[in-house]
Each structure stands twice: as C-alpha cells, then as structure tokens.
Write a structure and sequence with these properties.
mainly alpha
Length: about 110
Amino acid sequence: MTTDPTPTISRADAQSILNTIYCAIKEFEFLTPSMFSAMVHIAIMSYWRGRQYKLDSSSKAQEKVTLVNICVESLMDVAVNNNKYGWFLTWLEKISDVDDERQLTP
C-alpha cells in the first residue's frame, strides 16, 4: 500500500480521469446529478486502487474522503484551465444545486 502522506495527481492523470468520466456519461440518454456523482466517485476510487491504495474497509473512511477530495480538486483545476472540460464544472454545479435543494426540503 502506498503511504505517501500527501498524494498528488498529475495533470495527465486528471485529464485521463476526466476523459474516462466523459466517455461513460455520454452513453446515457438521460443523466441525473446523482448518476454523474456516482460515476465520478467510481472513476476516482478506481484511480486510487490503481495507485495501490486499499480503501475498501470501513476503517479507511476518512482516508477515502481525503483522497476523493484531492482528486476532485485536481479535476476541477484541470477543468477550470481547459475549456474542453467545462462540462465537468457544469455537472458539479448541478450537483451543488441538488444538494442545496435537499437542505431546504424539510
């Protein structure tokens, strides 16, 4: 298992993850924010597993959250700096809107 205390994601890896997500989501005729969120999570977890991070046990919950956040930040950075990935930012906004609506619903 990798024990790097502050793992990083290269720009090339972030672009590869974004391309993988895009290839998956374009197959859906109707994609919801929940489906998009799940696809992103699967792609991110697959990436970390490929880097030898073992995150399947419940004792690794905090490490999983940290690694997902690191990856999402890298994906956002790439998307902000490359219009080709603007779709990713649009979907993140949709997820945020859904989360906001859920918080307002009693």
